[in-house]
Amino acid sequence: MKVTLNRNAFLEELATVQRAISGKTTIPILTGVKVDLTESGLTLTGSNADISIETFLSIEDEEANMIIESTGSIVLQARFFNEIIRKLPESTLTLELIENNQVIISSGKALFNVNGLNSENYPHLPVIDNQNTFELSARVLNKLVSETVFAVSQHESRPILTGVHFVLENNELLAVATDSHRLSQRTITLNDVNTSFDIVVPGKSLQELSRSFKDEEEMVEISIMENQVLFKTEGMNFYSRLLEGNYPDTNRLIPTNFSTEIEFNVPELLSAIDRASLLSHEGRNNIVKLSINSEQVIIYGNSPEIGNVEEALNYIKVTGEPIDISFNPDYMKASLKSFGAIDVVIKFISPIRPFTLQPNDDEINFIQLITPVRTN
Amino acid sequence: MKVTLNRNAFLEELATVQRAISGKTTIPILTGVKVDLTESGLTLTGSNADISIETFLSIEDEEANMIIESTGSIVLQARFFNEIIRKLPESTLTLELIENNQVIISSGKALFNVNGLNSENYPHLPVIDNQNTFELSARVLNKLVSETVFAVSQHESRPILTGVHFVLENNELLAVATDSHRLSQRTITLNDVNTSFDIVVPGKSLQELSRSFKDEEEMVEISIMENQVLFKTEGMNFYSRLLEGNYPDTNRLIPTNFSTEIEFNVPELLSAIDRASLLSHEGRNNIVKLSINSEQVIIYGNSPEIGNVEEALNYIKVTGEPIDISFNPDYMKASLKSFGAIDVVIKFISPIRPFTLQPNDDEINFIQLITPVRTN
Lengths: 376, 376
Hints:
The structure is a homodimer.
Chain A: E1 2-6, H1 7-18, E2 32-38, E3 41-47, E4 51-58, E5 67-70, E6 72-77, H2 78-87, E7 92-97, E8 102-107, E9 110-115, E10 133-137, H3 138-148, E11 163-169, E12 172-178, E13 182-189, E14 197-202, H4 203-212, E15 219-224, E16 228-232, E17 236-241, E18 260-265, H5 266-280, E19 288-292, E20 297-303, E21 307-312, E22 317-320, E23 323-327, H6 329-339, E24 343-348, E25 355-359, E26 366-370
Antiparallel strand pairs in A: 1-5, 1-7, 2-3, 2-6, 3-4, 4-17, 7-8, 8-9, 10-15, 11-12, 11-14, 12-13, 13-26, 15-16, 16-17, 18-22, 18-24, 19-20, 19-23, 20-21, 24-25, 25-26
């Protein structure tokens, strides 16, 4: 195996597969990156228990400017490999596999000789068939993820809730996440998809996935197998395991009748909640109180040791009954952030029933639910 | 006490005194910032066991645009105070002391009511006379600090070595730091200073000091007392305690006869050392080897587990005997960084004697010493 190529092009591939490589794994070969050189180009692979990422740099890539002298493969310690490549003195580098799994990395006058591992011992990636396949743009996929993934559970007590539930049926793709205190659900309509599925993808996999796209406009081909999903772009295969088990029925949780409705500008409400939560964060109960009546809307926060805060909120419109309701400001902040700079409608039933948040437009394709905190 | 002022101007002052405030102190009132309002302006104070910082915002400061309705003083929890001010909705804010040490902080519709502490319980800052006083620009002072402070000891086993030794005599100001493995010494000539002293200032104080100046061109008045030093600028008083004890005589450590001399461009040498140290960092002995002869200069690094690296170095000029010498690359990197993008002359006596580094110009006012590591 011997190849000369552009350092930055190589570094970019390395950075992508590195997302799947953990220094903490108990399987030594998985701390490495697998380098595979064929006549058509260079494949890098990184993997951990949850995700595997494979990138491909084609011999025809102009920026990479690859000169392949001989093919072969090797596994190299990911952390060092990356640091070495990053610090090389020139804009091109040469990788050469010599005897005993040793690799010479050279650039300018610098010459590293590093110990690799036999690539035959590297685990095989799952084989995915192309039965259950559909396409989304990276932009739409990233939006779907960012609108839901924040609401997955961080606790392993109910593992199924650490994932986002995706259901595709009749050209409708539903994504929903809940940690049982709050819920976020998004529906999008796809065109002419001849497949249907019901899967739960780990939230952490989705977060890594959404950081791995090079270009928001590229198309992502999504293939679903029994216990794996593959997200495939032109230069990358991103595999994630699926979570096993039944996801709870979340549809029945979403209320339909309300007694109070109020409309806010999201950035304004977000900064006010942020201020109100400054002190409540320090108290035993991390709650803020919202008090709505037809004349004014006030948010309260307090900490017995430090002090208290109140602020009259600007709002666009309010209808229905007066209400005083307390909630965890962190849930509210995460929810508001996922909306971006739009106006949002919040609908309440009572101080002890979950309330909903939705964009103020007519379509009901994005809805969030937050359970309030009972106070006396 | 009641004042209305510009939020950003106030935040800037807060950020400065915050450098002296530690959340870890065992003296509760020192987790606070003291706010003092007189008819001439606003003084903020922060303090810990090592340093105290006092800033003054004048009633005449145009950006601050202060309206003082009544004077007074209070101590407020620094961490919350800063966060509250930072998140206020408008560009001005009002601070008002009401009964029971409570302070109302208001801006726009947001209204915080926070608990303060009686400012009479705040410790008094040292009184400094103006006997031992001289002036330096912030730029010169910062340079002096950055050229020496990296070499102070990080260990408390010999507390005196955790400081920088400053000696002023006959208009010559000497600054020297050593952790007994390496040393950095800088001398500058001052004009018409009618004072002399011999003090050791804690390295940590100097690091905070050099981050606290608003403007590199401002003049700093330095006053020295028995166990304190005051660095005074127009808007800030920065006090540091001095270290007690005798600083070792470092002059006799600096060699004068050498067998090998070599000249390098600092940025080039620094990146090569950086590469060579990538692998040695992982080994038991964090050392790299430099091998100099009249034909070539090579740097070597290795780790038994990961591999090895060698690189032929570019150099400007070499004279004297061939030498192979091993050293801790971290000391070399810290030393080179303090020189900036210049050329440096390194002079060796033997593989077991300390070597010197100096700028390649004639003046011998900046010299560093690194002790090599003996290998067999």
